[in-house]
Amino acid sequence: MSGYQKHHRVPDGHSDAAQGFVRKAGHPDVKSAADGLYSDIRTLFAYKRREFDYTCEDGFAWIKTPDFDLQIRIDQCPDDPKNYRLSTEITALHTDSIADDSRFHSCFTHHCDQLVVDFASPVRVEDKIDRLEDIDELREALSYEPDGTAFELKLPQLDLHIHVTEGTMTFRLLTLRNLGKLLEHSQKAFDILADCDFGLKLR
Predict the structure, then answer these.
(1) Percent of the chain at pLDDT above 70?
(2) How confident is the model at residue 7 (pLDDT cuts 50, 70, 90)?
(3) Does position 203 have pLDDT exceeding 60, yes or no?
(4) Domain ranges of the chain
């Protein structure tokens, strides 16, 4: 982190104070990432200044545009208190066409490697596992927790890894980052999973 100094003590546990330290010390990194994306977005999409809403403070940055909103943040790593995680998240798409826009893919391919879908209400994961095990072409691709709280699907034909809990479905590519491919193949996976009644579409 750019704001880390030699006299600072590395956190050895998770706490509000440790999280606050990470956000303060990491704020310069957030600002650098946000300023870079702001410039890329302006160049690619030719938005005018008044079409942007840009805020950056306390280890958070928000950029809102006519077509999408995004957030950049730095947090203490949940699995390792001595490390941090700098993340970029597209939080909203305002136009249906933006998910297919090559400018959007070019801008965010190197920043976004997962698609996370939040369910409107919790799903019964065990029921979905049972449905998947009844589909011959998906049974071998399925693995799940013994208590039925989560499952994974690996679909090499779509280059996709899918992880599902009662609240979310997460997609990522098995190979190199490619946002356009991730969005396209995730939609294909939705179509394949239609028989399991997830009722999801990207758009």
Answers:
(1) 88
(2) very low
(3) no
(4) 16-109, 116-196
Count of alpha carbons within 13 Å of 78, Cβ hemisphere only?
Answer: 1
For residue 18, the model assigns a pLDDT of 79
Q: Does domain 116-196 have CATH number 3.30.310?
A: yes
CA-based nearest residue to 35, from 4, 18, 56: 56
Count the neighbouring beta carbons within 10 Å of the beta carbon of residue 125: 19
The one-character DSSP state at 194 is G
Pairing of strands 60-64, 160-164: unpaired
Please choose, from the candidates 71, 21, 64, 73, the residue with its C-alpha nearest in 3D space to the C-alpha of residue 45.
64
- Tell me what pLDDT residue 202 has: 47
Start-to-end CA span in the chain (Å): 37
Alpha-carbon distance values, 109 to 87, 102, 183 (Å): 13, 10, 11
